[in-house]
Protein 1
Amino acid sequence: MIRALSGFGALFLLVTAFEYREQGPQTSEDLGRLLFEDPILSSDQSISCASCHLPAFAFADTSAVSLGVGGQKGTRNTPAITNMSARSAFFWDGRAGTLEQQVVQPIENPVEMNLPLPIALERLRQNARYRGFFQTIYGRQPDTLTLADALASFVRTLETGNTPFDRWMRGNETAMSESAVRGRQIFMKKGKCFDCHFSPDFTGDEFRNIGLFDGKTRQDAGRFAITKDSADLGKFKVPGLRNVAVTAPYFHDGSFRTLREVIDYYDQPDQFVPHGLNRDSLLAKPLGLTEQDKQDLEAFMHALTDDRFRRE
């Protein structure tokens, strides 16, 4: 069964279930949402996409790595999937170039849903409800293209832009606290955050090495496993920062539990990983952030949370 959810996540699923029980999905986005929540796409039908991408937490997970079928541990932290429409690379290592390529890979991944795509498609074809849904929306039975399109179409609905920061940018000077406004200046200059997080979604879709690879205790080589280019050793995709305050834990391995720990790391990475290999030159020296700088920067991070995910 789907992992228990609370708050926004539970309401999201209840409303969805009621809508589809009444009339069935009417669009590819609706169908994608139904598939996203349905454990039919896992080998033992125990988990769904929503089991790891929790709606209440900006569609991220709350554990360092997610559990797949049979309780198998994943190898990397589950990233949030909000604000994916403008992305040019997916997964921490960028192995997918389109959202359609990305959404089907967890289904087949042995430590995630562990279901070969041909079997997944046959399940859907043997299911009278899904057979009818695909026929109504796509005019044909489920296949790789329509399954990928449905899931990707749903993910593209998860855009968020209703944040204190966005209101502040539109001229509402009281939308962000004074601390968050100061934090934005730290973000832009002293903290060097903007050098990597520079688009409207606060990611440049680049791959950077922030020093978490040392070839010994930290051996995930990241992008290098895809390109085999030594320049990519330890590089990972720069994540977007919208809703970052609700997507802990952080980094590709989920090893940092709080935003403050992340900020402390960037300020002095050598204090955490003394011999990071191929670390980006932006982090060659300590940033020299003061305690006030760190508090302000964290306040700005919280101001990037969409209203649908905000909590007291």
Protein 2
Amino acid sequence: MIINPRLKTRPVTIGTQTIGGGHRITLQSMTNTDTHDVAATVAQCERIISAGGDLVRITVPSMEYVQDIAEIKKQLRSKGLSTPIVADVHFFPKVAEACAQEVEKVRVNPGNYTDKRIFDYHEYTEAEYQEGIDKMAGKARPLLEICKKNHTAIRVGVNHGSLCDRVVSRYGNTPEAMAMAAMEWVEICEKEDFHELVLSMKASNPQIMIESTLAVAEKMQQRGTIYPLHIGVTEAGNGKEGRAKSAVGIGALLLAGVGDTIRVSLTEKPENELAFARKLLQFLEKTAAASYDIENGEILKIDYDCADADELLAAAGAIAGYELFIKKHTFKNLFIHNPHLENDDNKKVADYILQACRLKLDKAEFISCPSCGRTQYDIEKISGIVKERLAKYAGVKIGIMGCVVNGPGEMADADFGVVGTAQGDLIVYKGKEKITPPLPIADALTILEENVKKMKHQE
């Protein structure tokens, strides 16, 4: 098979790295240690870098953490590590402005940067709608000035679950809405003569992630400047399920020639994310080894010769996502041939991919965040418990979120879910609705399962 030529994007310099402009696709991950624990975070940054991370992202929940990320960067530099540091900031513009003076890149989310986000529909007049954009521009302006002065890049990270009410009221909670939210920031930045900009469209559903990324790329093409695209399926989960979702979403876009930097989001150690990201890039370099066709418009048949099960998952997932969500070629089943695996193992890989494509929902779907310094409980352990208890409820979508920053928003794509609190308790959600106060983990999981059972009994 032949992949599409890379989309020509504007190069953006981030410390020692250049993203876009035909440069190699970079890999990145995010720490999940408490940022206050400088020693632990520095050690994890070192492991991420050793595993192939070209950029490292660190959460900065409030102003008191800014000095921590500055110290973390200082210690890494003293060890001879020049890998760019990215500050992940939510809610507080002043925190983003402070971080922009310390690190090479700041990630902000339009949905919680200024506009309200209470999932409330409102009919906006043109004047009201423009007023919302103007307010956002006013709050963004100081950050842009600081970034220009300090040569700091910005990633505008749009999440499907955290779009502001203004955008959702006009465009729905859709890929188009995500693209429009990003383009508002493109226009704001360009008016301020700021161009060190990277965009990302994140969703836990690979199809929404793919469609929103293609939509924003097309809108940028129409304007004449295409900024680099950071691609990834957010809250993909863990294990083979998480890798399959990432392969379907990230791999499909890479085959389409879209994507300048990637992050695989797994509820596991950050180093594991990079290991699978490298599998995706390995396949990108070996696409000539793959052959496939769609038989009778029903069965996607893939033949790929490799001895590594994760590389096979990366390859087959990328092909399936590309054919289904980009080429729009429908199929109902997937058959994989790989001479190094038994037929049953090939079938298991195919089943993970069909589940990720939402073509074969024979077990529950889990949407779980990879966690970060905001997470106050062992989310990897709890994810394992939830999967073991609830996987049998086929077709139910269950979210497992580390904190309240993106958790409630991402519940919008789940039937039920749990969100962690600062005290290590869990809140149970039904869709967007909170149905319990913070509870001890065991109690919360019991209530979660009771509600899932009730839903299945009503079907």
Protein 3
Amino acid sequence: MQQQPLTVSIRVPLRKGGDRPPHERPQRLHLYVDETDFTAEDGRHLRGVGILSLSTPVGQELIDRALDKLRNDPDRDPSSPRFNPAFAKKDQRTLDERFFHACEDSQNGHSPLAEEINAGIHGNFVAAFVESGTRSGEEAYRTNAMRALLSTLKGRTAVSCTFEQWGHFKELQAKDLIEYMNEGLRQTAYEMTMLRTFYPRIDVTVEGKKNPGLQIADFLLWCLVQREFRPSSTKKGEWGDRCGLFRWANPGIPEAEAQW
């Protein structure tokens, strides 16, 4: 029996220890939507979407600080006892191209990025996964993004939503996805008149992997995949912990085999 889609909700705190900041209503939410495709340890082929939600946009300066730390990492020196030639090749790729890509970076690259995320990022990270064999790629992406978007949008706050460009998914498809979501909200408003339904303004853009916010979302999604789907991995919780990821809620519906 194939498992139903899995949704995992995780919060990214600003302060170490998971302290929550005073409640503030942001003027605008900034969402970064990243996509992944991978094989779980149990052999399932999964497609996932992760959404990082912040009250302020991610600036290039965070990425630049992490790159500077990587550039000056003493373990990159061939005379260091911790020097690793395989890491050196990956690190040079990261520095030459000036962006982080979690599945291609070494531990040297992961470390400064995780440090900068823990120190400078506060918000929520939500991810959704489905078995890619049960749906087409486009439909699986739409299902995942819908599930994650709806759990992220909680009110009337305007939204800037940046999607990762992949395959044939471009700005037109992104706008179609938002309209698809609004259609579902309209149906809910019609059938459940006592339940408040919000239609925030959502401005969408589609950008490449070098967008700073998408680099953060990519790394957090990679961390989550290690933790949830590769339990024997030596990286199971290490990098997520170093980013400051912690689970603040984990309810489920046993009948649907679903999890949030």
